[in-house]
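Exercise 4. Each item below gives a protein and its sequence. For each, produce the structure-token representation.

Item: Peptidase C39-like domain-containing protein (Brevifollis gellanilyticus).
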Amino acid sequence: MLMHSSASLAAAAELNAPSSLRAKAASGDAAAQLSLAMALRDGKGAEKNDAEAMQWAHKAADQGHAGAMDFIGFAYLRGAVVKRNPEVAFGYFKAAADESSQAAFNLGQCYFGAQGTAQDCTRALEWWVKAADQGHGRAAATAAMAYHAGEGIPRDAVKARRLAERAAELNNPAGLVFLGELQFQAGEFEAAKASWIRASKLLPTQATGHPSQPSDNASAQQAADLLRIMNYRQRKGEPGKFAHVPMPHILQGYNNCGSTACATFARFQGSEICGWDFKKLCPSPLGTGTDWGHLLDASAKIGQKWKLTTFTPDEEGFEKATAMLRSELDDGRPVVVDFKYIGPQYPNGSAGHTLSVCGYIAEEDLYILCNPAVATPGLQLITAADLKDFWRSDHYGALSKGVLSRPAFVIDRS
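Answer:
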């Protein structure tokens, strides 16, 4: 689950006149200082300069500007502009949360994901609800999905629906996706369709999305995908043609994709475990990546039998891997896989992500993902070409031995 710093759309016009913006910032205008910091961080309207961006953000924060405090907190949380320090990030978010809905959202994320503080899911929900009351759509959507899944807190369908409706009021694409899913599950198909159409029009979409899209773009794309597979979800699968295996979905906490994906896999098999409880069965701290060997051990601790299977990362390996996928899906069983993203936007140049494959459409050479990083129901379409590119990993744990392969957890039927 990624967090977003409090970028201001109102600053966009200023960025067309960087000299004027610099002059205002130099005169002590805190809002201009933050706008200049954003321009320098993002390289939009000014040459990218992380160090100078932080200098201007600190000047604004020193004047008590809540948005600047959130900017600094986010930088320390992500570790992309300065050295990562969740404790410092938490302090800045806490200082700004009463005045900034974005800081309140990020503070909730820290409590939820044990970033810079002990985990406290109840307090996380309190801050998300406060942010939602202040007009933060993503906070409303995130709180709604937590109540729906019972992730870290007791399930509450009434609060989930009310917060989803609040997120929709605020035109949040993730909230509209989730509200549409609640409507779909209630048999309100036309209402669901309307929610997903609305979400899909908020941002540009394509025939299928890309696994590394930013959150809001991914939600708009997800809505388009849900419209496209709406009919398939209401039909019985046809082996060799298409399959969709319904899975429960949990929206992951900070850096908890492995345990959350495995919790949904476990829930599919009858467990009631949540992502955080699955994580606590593993030795690594909350808010850190999880070794797949530990995830496999955790499955045994809850009485489930899984096995790790791997395929070579070449063309032949992909053909064998997808044949396995379709066989499992035709038999009504999803499969957990690990993706590797490569690019300068990721700390250290790459990132891993665990999710499930829960369907395919053979005629269009598409696969259906159940992704813990996106809005409930987590469903996304991916082309076979993108699946081949992303389904690979050499750091899913000690079991990988540093060798690139296509890893998967499947239900052990032996």
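Check: Residues 215-233 form the longest helix (19 residues).
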